[in-house]
Amino acid sequence: MSLRRRISYVAAAAVAVAILLAALVCYWVVRSQLRGQVDDALRAQATAVLSVGAPALNQQLPGIPPSAGGPAQYYQVVVGETDQRAGNYALPIGSRVHSVANGMGGMYLTDVQVGDNHLRELVLPAEVRSGLEMLPAAVQLARPLNGIDHILSRLRLILFLLCAGGVALAAVLGRLAARQVLAPLAEVAQTAEHISETEDLTSRIHVHADDEVGQLATRFNAMIERLQSSRAELDDSVRAQRQLVADASHELRTPITSLRTNIEVLLAGGTLSEEDRQRLLADVVEQSEELSALIGDLIELARGDLPHDMVEDVRLDRILEESISRARRDHPEVAFEASLQPVTVEGVPERLGRAVNNLLDNAARHSPPHGVVDVTVNADGLRVRDHGTGVDEADLPYVFDRFYRGKNSRGRQGSGLGLAIVRQVAVQLGGSVDVSNAADGGAIFSLHLPTISADETDGQNVTLWADERRAPV
Q1: Taking each helix axis from N to C terminus, what angle separates 418-428 and 274-304, rounded to the nearest 10 degrees?
Q2: Are 141 and 122 in contact (CB under 8 A)?
Q3: pLDDT beyond 60 at 462
Q4: For residue 235, which phi and psi values (nearest 5 degrees)?
Q5: Model's pTM, two decimal places?
Q6: Domain 308-457 has CATH 3.30.565.10
């Protein structure tokens, strides 16, 4: 059964119960009022009968004025000892009437049926004179209820028709109301079905009102919005992974081919001189190192796409102290001048250290012999400047792309992934990285990070990154 039909049935049932209860109350009130008037008139005449004392058996019973209902249409007096009867109508005599006539019962009201007449009867104990004697008797006063029964019968018919019409009207209005109320739900169902069939996440539901159904539509739209955003992010991630695999395949092909060629030449032997053999072996070692560095960078990039749960407070100035010490050992021909203020960032120490090492190695490789690399750490983050040839203006927008080798980097050793790792780490830490050319020569790389003063972290555990592994750019 559909929800619309169930709502129609529930509405019709609720209205039916309400109308039925109202009809029953109405019928009971009208019936009580009409019969109450008859009972009041009978009691008034009983009071009049009792007030005149003991009438004679065949004496006319006293009546009541028309304003009080007028005298009872029917009466009968039953003498208990002789079972004599007198009156203007033969009313039925039962055991209860005999008990009252014999002085063993009190006044009561009851309904009696005499032929086609439905009567309301009041029986009361009294005394009557028979000659010189006073005899106990029962006086029966009765009024017809046929008129009242006819009115109540018409009332029952009217109320029944009213109930039936009300239920039918409630069913129709309930169905119309259900259609109006459930229209947004039908739109939700149609939208969900459309998305299921077409996978089109741009569909939205129009919010008609700020009610429960409107709130449902709003939440459904928000859910679709989040799903669309998640799907877009997933598509971007898949495209990035495919691009990484394609670029890695292309970049790996050259060193592997060169390495294989040199190994094949060495295996062939022939008339190679010892000098040529040593040169080939040195090329094999260099190509192996280059291949290892490239694979390491690829692993770092792939690992950087994963969420990190080990975020902690890290002293950026201390990481730079360790990284500068490593850079001085690896590049003794370059001077590193540092201005390090104590600042703290939130991040993964190992990855942050890898990004810093890449920036320092990149600056050292592009510096002239006996050149100077300026390193600054302050509340804005990290700034690394070399005094080399700088970055070609056409290469500035692309230096942080994967495998990109600028004009000034071609011919130098490197995988083209070091600066891509720097950008990836910066984005993960909620920061950014940019590059510009200094006016007097050289390139300036700025790693902007959300930092806090180290004074604010006094007394806390701050991690010192001490991994001195080399991270080629």
Answers
A1: 20
A2: yes
A3: no
A4: -65, -40
A5: 0.47
A6: yes
